[in-house]
Every structure is written in C-alpha cells, then in structure tokens.
Amino acid sequence: METPLVLHAERLTKRYGRRVALADCDLMIPRGHIVGLVGPNGAGKSTLLQLASGLIGPTSGTLSVLGSRPAANAAHLARVGFVAQDTPLYASLSVADHLKMGAWLNPSWDLALAERRIAEVGLDPAQQAGRLSGGQRAQLAMTIAAAKRPELLIFDEPAAALDPLARRGFMHSLVEFVGELGASAVLSSHLLSDVEQVCDYLVVLCDSRIQVAGPVRELLASHHRVIGDPATIAGVEVIWAEHGRAVVRGDAAVRARDAGPVTLEELVLAYMSRSAVTGAVSRESAAVAR
Q: Based on the domain organization, do 245 and 196 belong to the same domain?
C-alpha cells in the first residue's frame, strides 16, 4: 500500500522570464510530517511554496498537493492553510473582525478553536491588527490558517522578523496546531534552529534544485563527518570536503577512522556549499559557451 503524499513534484520548473526559480525538481513528501524547507536566499523556497499553494503555476513539470492540482477548486483550497512571510492582515480590522471574515470565507471554519487560540496567546479581540506586534500578527495569521481545519499548513518564513521570544512562541503554537488538527506542515526558514526545534523531515533547496530530502533522523544516520581524505573511503558519496575535513554519505564511512555523526547544521551547510561550487561552475561554463 502506497504512503499518501502531501506533495509530489516531477521535473517541476518555474521561470520568470530568463530567470530560473526552480529547475527540474523531483520531490515526494509523505503525509504526517512537519517539513523544514531550507536553503539560501533566492534558492526558490518561496516559489515552491507559492506553487504548492496555487498562487502561481509552473512553467513545466507537474505538482500535486494532497493528491490534486494545487488550488484545483474551492474544496481543495479549504484543505490547505497558507501563512506568508509578511503575515498579511487588514490593519484597520480588529482581531474579532478577522475571525468573522474567516468564518465567512471558510465553510469548515472552527470558531471555537479560533477563539480559544486567540485567548491562549493573549490577543484582545477588539484590537486593530495594525496595532499588534510582529509576534501577535504572526499568531493571528496562523490562527486564521489553522481554523480552516486544513490537512496541510504552509509557512513561508513566518518567523523571520520576530524576536527570539516571539519566535519561540510561534513555533510552539505551530506544533500544537499540527498535533490538534492531525495535519502536515511545511515550514520554510533560513533559521536552522527553528527547523531543528520542530521539524522531523528536511528538504534542502539550493540553486533552484532539490539537493536532498528525507526524514531528519534517517538523513543524520546516513551522513558522517570524517577527518582526512574522504577519497580513501570506498563506497561513500562526498558531499563536501575542505581542509582535511569532510561530510560524506554512506554506511561505509562508519568503518572509517575518525568518523563521527553530523549535526543538522553541518549536513545542511555541506549541501549548500556543494551547490554553491557546482552552481558557480555551471554558470561559468554557460558564460564561456555564449
């Protein structure tokens, strides 16, 4: 029996004129995870999430979310909750007005959940959204997305502008919402501490391409830090090597002398460093060819 997928991309490509935002991306994410989508600025993270939310369409390739084309119809839209980086709210509307609007727009709206969560994070229903702090706006936007009772919550750098205390509160609420709804979630962030705190599945996106994806525990178990020349270890893939240190993938590394486990940060930075080198070489080759 096949595992249901929350997101399935095949050769997914998105171009804006001559600029390639995503290139031939293949990705299969099973349901039931909190997915951390990481990569440098400009890697294509927001583009991927906007495609998944149905806000834009692909240039080529295919993408399905919860088994259907993104935003295929009103019923599918109700199954996905999206919180953008700038947590868009209506500044002149009160917190209570936002909840009323959510109820009007969403047939499956859970008013009891929304009101309870607003009270738990200390929001005044009469307060105008434009007078809320950044952390309060983020909490309100997440509550509106979750009160739809979606099967998938998508967060595009939602805590990027928050101070550490507000960010911690936001991440705590995110985990609570996912657990209460029995939903899946995709969280884009350049803060690895956020990903390490709440995510059990990782996708590294660099230079418009998927570099690696999988459950965090499995990825950490299959990658190793080694000291010395990784070329002497047969049966491993060298992800990154510099100054006598390397990150490699493969069980053979366990038998190597001076081999040890990698941290999540080391794993992500290894793939980002490799992508930076290969991307620079590709761009140089293209320039020479022209």
A: no
